[in-house]
Amino acid sequence: TLPTPVDNQTAFDLDRAHVFHSWSAQGALAPLVIAGGSGTVLWDYEGNRYLDFASQLVNVNIGHSHPAVVAAIAEQAKVLATIAPSNAVLPRGEAAARIIERAPEGFHKVFFTNGGADANENAIRMARLYTGRDKVLSTYRSYHGNTGSAIVSTGDWRRVPNEYARGHVHFFGPYLYRSEFWATTPEEEGARALHHLRRVIESEGPASIAAILLESVPGTAGVMIPPPGYLAGVRALADEFGIVLILDEVMAGFGRTGRWFAFEGYDVVPDLITFAKGVNSGYVPIGGVIISDPIAAHFDERVFPGGLTYSGHPLAAASIVATLDTMAAEGIVEHAAMIGTDVLGPALAQLGADHPLVGEVRGEGVFWVLELVADPATREPVSAEMMARIKKELLARGILPFTMDNRIHVVPPCTVSPDEVATAVAAMDEVLTLVERA
Ligand code: PLP
């Protein structure tokens, strides 16, 4: 029999002996041991507690172990724990209906996947079949998942060792703090980024481009809030050239920005919406594509050549129903918006004002980033060693951060309380002071 972990070491040793980890050389890993969680709080087997200001991989929007969602999964498990996607089952239909309720006019169908990567994979497949074209345009500063086309759509380094899929072209999106366009205002950045995209479309040949795939708010790449008019301008370019616009709402959707969908804040309606993460906070893996009517109708008489054994898994579907109903009943999306404007935004702005290390503070809702620089004038990113030290010091103070490159992503659950924000920000203040002195 396997030992039951009663201390951290047992769990740690089993992991290191047998678990092969993501995105890592396996040799020197030291995973944090977690035993349980509730709301924003996680704990280990030895009584250490952490405030989860990462929401794990920015997916636990409703907080850990919400009793309503846990109960819905348990109830569904008693009735029917699994079923093939070809059957009609109530939780799957109800989950799709709940999602459609929040989608814009003109969307009536949901294709369920196992997560975010295969949501993008299938959205790309739909766009290619719908347009009869091949190429997919996406930005260098993006992450879209780790399957064939999703990883090649991704802009960052993770694309390069995985370039198996064909037809992917990258361009630069707006990012005023490190502008590729010598812009000095958000308006200038947005307009020049649109000009650049137009030139890429023209140069690639519009008739070869099936889709533009964008995160509504690029998340892992640094929470870059789109400048005024940018996404609407991308929509106009897509319309002009007959290109399908896919907005990836995997990280930004379902409350993270203080809205059900991030794009609702930017005067744009896509043709396909991909989602995962916050839709059920990852209690059971699920994602999907929300399909606009013309693209859905395209497959009325033509076979859609895609599917997955666990598409619309009943436990995941039941957890979506409970999650979305609970988020609505408890005003969780509105709470996330309030936290952003009244609590977290002002507190992080104060950190930015107090600490020369903080080059820029960006975000909305519970979707924020502190971009750290060694020199505010040159904006040179802080070193990897500095980031490792900051992460270690935050963990030592009971704050679990999401760090990426030279950034601290401040991304707690949508349910985070003002007191928890105050605790986390005080710890960040202390740690920034400490490393600045050093
Ligand atoms: N798209 C975005 C914007 C993401 O942030 C992620 C994951 O971080 C994905 C897609 C991939 O989702 P998954 O890891 O569920 O496949």
From TrEMBL:
GO terms for molecular function: transaminase activity. Keywords: Aminotransferase, Pyridoxal phosphate, Transferase. It comes from the Bacteria. SUPFAM superfamilies: PLP-dependent transferases. The keyword Transferase applies. The keyword Acyltransferase does not apply. Pfam families: Aminotran_3. Belongs to the class-III pyridoxal-phosphate-dependent aminotransferase family. This is Aspartate aminotransferase family protein. It comes from Microbacterium sediminicola. The lineage of its organism: Bacteria, Bacillati, Actinomycetota, Actinomycetes, Micrococcales.
